[in-house]
Amino acid sequence: MTLHNGTNFQKSVICPAVKMAIPVLREKKGDKGDTGQPGPAGEDGAGVIYSPWLNVEFDYDDGSYLSHLEVPELTNEILSKGDIRVYVNLSSATEPAVFPLPFLEDDNELYYIRYAALLNGITLQANFDASTSSGDDPNLQYRYVLIPGSEAARKAKDIDWNNYAAVKAYLKLAD
């Protein structure tokens, strides 16, 4: 970029600034200090809110199936700074097959279940009747996990949030 007086901006401003910073960056570090005392142990899963496995009824409405879960703990704070996860158990409690939402299955026909998180609730939408089956060991149950933004769980880099078994173990979720 050329200034109005014909001076090259990059050479006149940036280069002297970089030249002044280089000696500072080359300064030697001091010796490493002693390791500090470990901090107190945190509570397991503190602040994390999760539902039991829920039986959910979907209603057909204008081309899709919908259900709404009342979740009073789902606040603006969690919506704006936290994390919301929803899982579906496509099988049963005795032989679980848990998947994260949105769920897509293409078995010659596309099936999906997805969700929208709203203040005080979660809306589920599917293109098939994804209602929980009845019986002693029902299929298609749902669980939500709310993770406040200040929780260490939200910052965990090595957790695969799409792997329910890993999430359950990390957050110590009860079945």
Structural features, described:
- There is one protein chain.
- The protein is globular, with a radius of gyration of 26 Å.
- The chain is of the alpha+beta class.
- The protein has one domain.
- Helix content is 21%, strand content 29%.
- Strands 1, 2, 5, 6 and 10 form a five-stranded antiparallel β-sheet that branches. Strands 3-4-9-8-7 form a five-stranded antiparallel β-sheet, with no helix packed on it.
- It is built from four helices and ten strands, in the order αββββαββββββαα.
How would you briefly describe this protein structure?
With 175 residues, the protein is of the alpha+beta class.
Global morphology: globular
Q: Please mark out the parts with pLDDT under 50 across 5 or more consecutive residues, or reply none.
A: 1-5, 7-27, 39-44
- In whole angstroms, how far apart are the ends? 63 Å
Order of helices and strands: HEEEEHEEEEEEHH
Helix content: 10-25%
For the sheet with most strands, the description reads: 5 strands, antiparallel
| Annotation, overall tally of beta strands | 10
Tell me the strand percentage band: 25-35%
On the 0 to 100 scale, the average pLDDT is 78
Compute the gyration radius: what is it?
Answer: 26 Å
The DSSP helix count reads 4
